[in-house]
């Protein structure tokens, strides 16, 4: 179900997320605003990749994105960024301050998504431990067809910084 424009908060024109998400997950809001403020300082590769992305919902241990045009070669990068931010929806024991670094990722390509078509990423946080987190991601096209999946493992860097 598409999100209406009046339900979205604009973080300096880079990333959008719903008012509900901003209220329920202040750490996620703070990180998104931090990423968005970089636009004027320098250009980062993930900023170009997520140019047309919206966080449309966040639930306990789950983050859902809606993206514009997606290229098959870009899927792994998109899923990496989107699933990393999902760690900030985890509310159990051992929550992390930072989103960590990837230690393992596997992408399965079942079907492509046509150019110009909107897609939906559902990032489910399976586990967040003291050192490792596991996220499972599903990507659907605009018609709800299951197109890509990914298993993602992250390593916590909180105590290293």
Architecture blueprint of SSEs:
Layout: E1 8-11, E2 15-18, H1 19-24, H2 26-37, H3 45-49, E3 53-59, E4 62-67, H4 75-86, E5 101-109, E6 119-128, E7 132-140, E8 146-155
Parallel strand pairs: 2-3
Antiparallel strand pairs: 1-2, 3-4, 4-6, 5-8, 6-7, 7-8
Description:
- The chain has about 160 residues and is α+β, with helices and mostly antiparallel strands.
- It has one domain (about 10-160): Hotdog Thioesterase (Thiol Ester Dehydrase, Chain A).
- Helices cover about 20% and strands about 35% of the residues.
- The protein has four helices and eight strands.
- It has helices at about 20-25, 25-35, 45-50, 75-85, and strands at about 10, 15-20, 55-60, 60-65, 100-110, 120-130, 130-140, 145-155.
- Strands 1-2-3-4-6-7-8-5 form an eight-stranded mixed beta sheet.
- It comes from Circinella minor.
- GO terms for molecular function: fatty acyl-CoA hydrolase activity.
- Keywords: Hydrolase.
- Belongs to the thioesterase PaaI family.
**Widest beta sheet: strand line-up:** 1-2-3-4-6-7-8-5
User: Which class best fits the helix and strand makeup?
Assistant: alpha+beta
Fold-level CATH name: Thiol Ester Dehydrase, Chain A
Oligomer: single chain
Our count of helices gives: 4
Order of helices and strands: EEHHHEEHEEEE
Mean pLDDT: 79
Helical residue percent?
10-25%
In total, the number of strands is 8
SS strand fraction: 35-45%
- Tally of individual domains: 1
Note poorly predicted spans: 1-15
């Amino acid at each position: 179900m598409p999100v209406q424009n009046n339900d979205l908060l604009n973080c300096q024109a880079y990333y959008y997320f719903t008012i509900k998400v901003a209220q329920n997950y202040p750490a996620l809001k703070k990180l998104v605003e931090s990423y968005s403020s970089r636009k004027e300082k320098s250009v980062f590769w993930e900023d170009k990749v997520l140019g047309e992305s919206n966080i449309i919902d966040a639930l306990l241990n789950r983050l859902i994105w809606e993206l514009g045009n997606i290229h098959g070669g870009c899927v792994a990068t998109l899923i990496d960024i989107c699933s990393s931010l999902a760690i900030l929806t985890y509310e159990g024991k051992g929550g992390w301050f930072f989103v960590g670094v990837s230690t393992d990722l596997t992408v399965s390509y079942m079907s492509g998504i046509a150019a110009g078509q909107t897609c939906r990423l559902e990032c489910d946080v399976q586990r967040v431990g003291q050192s490792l987190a596991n996220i499972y991601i599903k990507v659907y096209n605009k018609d709800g067809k299951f197109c890509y999946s990914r298993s993602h493992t992250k390593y916590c860097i909180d105590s290293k910084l």
